[in-house]
Each structure stands twice: as structure tokens, then as C-alpha cells.
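Thread: "does anyone have the structure for this chain?"

Original post by V.I.:
We have the sequence but no experimental structure in hand. Need at least a predicted one for the grant figures.
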Amino acid sequence: MRPADWPPVVLDLDGAVGALPDERRIDLAQDWHEALRFGCGLARIRAFGGLLDARLPAFDRHGPVFMGSGDFHHLSWPLIARCIAARGHTAARPLRVVVLDNHPDNMRFPFGVHCGSWVRRVAMLPQVSHVHVVGITSGDIGLRHAWENYLAPLRAGRLTYWSVGVDTRWARWLGLQARFRSLPDADALAATLYRVLSAHRQPTYLSIDKDAFLPSVVRTNWDQGVLSAHHGAALISALRGQLVGSDVTGEVSVHRYRTAWKRWLSAGDGQDTAQTDAALPQWQAQQAAFNRVLLGQLAMAAD
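Reply from O.Q.:
Generated one for you, C-alpha cells below.
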């Protein structure tokens, strides 16, 4: 499929997504940036889901959705729900979800949903067969943070972590070792998952947080993983003929939270999004170039 036949949508929440060919850009920064960034209550994200239904083109009339910083990754939840509704997925005809991310995004969060907790919501949807989170190098799935992971989707066999360089032996104590695929390096991870995705074909939604990639590929607002550009290309190509929807986050942007609790939680996760770096324009130009590459690869996979 040509990108022009599958035009991208930009949910312009933080002004960080560069221009894309044939894009449809929806300006949401003034009303939704602070409200959604990092996390929000369930009522607010449901309201945002209603806005998507009202302002996005019909599901089969647009391509990947670009959302800005990875601080907005929880918006994948209403986007995936929209995909399920539009395509009529059911428990008998489910959707598979693949997430490229340096973090599990399955961590406990008591205040609604945030960019690090949304995967549980998706994994437990009856219309979703399985969620694969791919490219984790974060200690979030190590022993020290084991208690913070939601265990229900792992125990139910609905979620698998694919990681490099993280000691996950604690999962054996809970009988969850099958849900933790620990590979020695990025090459082994990409090759193994390529075989799995190619062999078990089914409709798949792909969510990409670019913090899964090395900083030499793109710079993001978060600590980053070990995937190179060719690893991402291989995994996208494995989904050719299976890809039914996608979104992309992981831009680098600057924002100072007005709400103290968001400043506190963000700092606790090692972020300082209010800090401006002189290299920011260079990083954003690099991001824009990589987005155009991803757009072309995703369009080919959707053929």
C-alpha cells in the first residue's frame, strides 16, 4: 500500500510531531496536553475516546496515528478499542497487539491510567488474544520492581514480556517463566519474535514507542532500549498482511506540568520534561526523518 492511500493522523498534543506526507493533523494541545500527559483519570480518557470517534476519519480511511511524546502512550488504549469496534473483533475472532517499548507499561497506578499502566487494560479485553511487549531493557521487570507489575494478565497467559539484559528469574517462583522471553541481545530478540509473528498469523495492532530504540536512532523523553532501526524494520515486515492498525509515540518534547502530582510522579520515573536542551531541534529533526521511514514501512506491512 502506498502511504498516500493510507494517510497518517497526527494527534498534535505537544507540538513535537514533524510534518508527514498527506497527514491529517488534529490540534489538541490547548485543551488536552496537560490533561492527558503522563496520566489521567478514567473519565477523562473515556471522554478522549469519544473525541477520537468524533474527529478521526473512519478507521479504514487513515493510517498510523502519531501522538507525540511517550508520555501519551496510554492513548493507545482508546485507539485499540476503536480498532476492535471498527473491525468487529470478538473473543472468537480476536486482535493481537504488539508493543515496541523499553518498558512493560503494565505497572500499578492507582489514579486511573498512565503511560506506564495501560497495557493491563488492553491485555484483559476479551477481544484481544495476546499482547507482546517487545524490547524491554528497563529494570521495571526485574526483581526490585516485580511487585509493581500487574500479574493478572501474565497469569492469564494474555501478556508476554520480551526483554534483553534484565534478570527476570523471579518469574519462576510464581510459575510465570513462560511469559518472560529473555534474549541475549537485540539480534536474538528480533529474530525469535520474527519467527513467532510470521508463523502465527492473525490480525495485529502495532504500537511503537520509540524509546525501545537506541539513542543513536532517535532521542526520546525516556531511558532507552537497544533496538536498531533494522530490528524495527524486520519486526514490522513480519506483520505484512497482518497489520490492521498502528500508532507511534516517543517524540522528544518539553513541558512543565502545572499539577504538582504529575511533576512528582514524573520525577519519580527519572524524567525532567521541563529541561530544555540546546540539541532539541536536532533531535526533533531526527525524529521527523525516522517517522517518515516508519510510515513507509507500516504502509508496506498493511498491504
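V.I.: this helps a lot. The CA atoms of residues 204 and 284 lie 29 Å apart.
O.Q.: and The chain is about 35% helix and 15% strand.
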